Amino acid sequence: MTTDMPDVEWEPLRLAATAALASAYAPYSKFPVGAAARLEDGSIVAGCNVENASYGLTLCAECTMVGALRMNGGGLITEFYCVDGNGAILMPCGRCRQLLFEFSTAETRLMTSSGVKTMDEVLPDAFGPRDLGRLAVAPAEG
Ligand code: THU
Predict the structure, then answer these.
(1) 51 CB less than 6 Å from ligand 1?
(2) Other CB atoms within 10 Å distance of the CB of residue 24
(3) Is-contact 21 33, C-beta < 8 A?
(4) CA–CA separation, 34 vs 104, rounded Å?
(5) How far apart are CA 9 and CA 93, in angstroms?
(6) Centroid of ligand 1 to alpha carbon of 134 (angstroms)
(7) pLDDT in tens, the chain (142 residues)
(8) What distance in Å separates the CA atoms of residue 32 and residue 101, rounded to the nearest whole number?
(9) Burial of 37 (0-12, 13-18, 19+ CB in 10 A)
């Protein structure tokens, strides 16, 4: 576990994630989720889950948060915090760990139910942009 940031720095993220719960659309699961991230420039973006009558099309809170990240000028995540409807820390689902990885660095920290963790700790040996690059430099066949 890596704890290198005072609690006070996490509090704005916890508050932003909790505030995002108010926008959640979760009539099917009745499980609202709020997510927030601090970017390298210090700004904070947030997101909420948005469900759909076609259940599998549900957008997790991290999906809308990443959309907000891009819509607000882009950037990389330094810290991430996700909460359930009770305001308790929620682990990002597997798919959302991949979404977060895209905009993370080795320094990115996530608040988890078992303490502060790095992206590599929650998504080891991640597939990412570099893997695509490897294929791009491979000689074409046929
Ligand atoms: N959910 C998220 O928003 N993020 C996660 O990382 C885990 C799951 C949402 C999706 C669905 O609307 C509800 O939680 C129940 O699975």
Answers:
(1) yes
(2) 20
(3) yes
(4) 19
(5) 24
(6) 33
(7) 444 677 769 999 999 999 999 999 999 999 999 999 999 999 999 999 999 999 999 999 999 999 999 999 999 999 999 999 999 999 999 999 999 999 999 999 999 999 999 999 999 999 999 999 876 555 566 5
(8) 23
(9) buried
Q: Residue 19: what residue type? A: A
In sequence order, what DSSP letters do the residues of 118-139 get, joined into one string? Answer: EHHHHSTT---HHHHHHHHHSP
Q: Write out the two tokens for 125.
A: 């040996």
pTM for the structure as a whole: 0.92
Give the number of the atom of ligand 1 that is nearest the alpha carbon of residue 50.
12
Catalytic residue among 11, 51, 62, 107: 62
Q: Encode 64-101 in three state secondary structure.
A: HHHHHHHHCCCCCEEEEEEEECCCCECCCCHHHHHHHH
Is 62 tagged catalytic?
A: yes
